[in-house]
């Protein structure tokens, strides 16, 4: 996924914007958009969010956006995410 | 990774806390901690962050934390992250 | 400002949503929107953001949104923000 | 408050770091720390957070930090926060 994403970025000439600092901001911005999907829901409503197709689509969309910036950031910093996660939870 | 993480959570009896709303908050909180590593750095300093072992370790740690909550959130919402990412960037 | 905002909320019957947890999420969500205005700008471009009327309007809009949720959160938690700030920086 | 804070910053020679981009990041980072105080609490526990002195102190501390960066950002961008808020909610 990281390689496909890097190629996507190169095709659009976005590398110039994809500095570590900018990507950390973009990741936090997308995490904020994800928050907004849940902020006015009760815990019960939040647990049912995927049962509403339109809301489910927005959730998948935001999760993908968070993942994309996380992968980009790991890529430009040359961090092996799987190894980092394994070390953190071992 | 998602399965290993889910087992880690079950062993600690954390499922009760891992509601979609709480996990979205935790993800944004970790994205905020990642931001803090970069906020006072110039773009040039940020680009060199992995050359300082202590800072590099903190970056890997925070990236892993973001990933862990992203995987947990996808897990409890039953979202296929790879499919969501593929759809978003196709 | 806090009182005017509280009345605004009451008129719309939003108190039910304005729990501390939800307001903390809304505050972070708005801080994320503010981030998005700056994330792809160079430091030089960011320093000039108020010279573009449309961007300046968006900045004022997001700063006001952050302030509004900060005031609401302080209100429902009965925190004296000025006192808290004074104590923090004395 | 904005003036007192600006003087505090000058005394520490922090102006060089207080660019709009960096301050937007710091604001989002503090909003993330605030989130972390609430993320594992039930809505009921969150509503009682100020009844625990240690937690109450952390909440006041984080609210003050968010406010301080919001005021700094408004200061460097020359935004009149009260006017921006008034316009937003009129």
UniProtKB/TrEMBL annotation, chains A, B, C, D:
<dbReference type="Pfam" id="PF12643">
    <property type="entry name" value="MazG-like"/>
</dbReference>
<dbReference type="GO" id="GO:0047429">
    <property type="term" value="F:nucleoside triphosphate diphosphatase activity"/>
</dbReference>
<protein>
    <submittedName>
        <fullName>NTP pyrophosphatase, house-cleaning of non-canonical NTPs</fullName>
    </submittedName>
</protein>
<dbReference type="InterPro" id="IPR025984">
    <property type="entry name" value="DCTPP"/>
</dbReference>
<dbReference type="GO" id="GO:0009143">
    <property type="term" value="P:nucleoside triphosphate catabolic process"/>
</dbReference>
<dbReference type="InterPro" id="IPR052555">
    <property type="entry name" value="dCTP_Pyrophosphatase"/>
</dbReference>
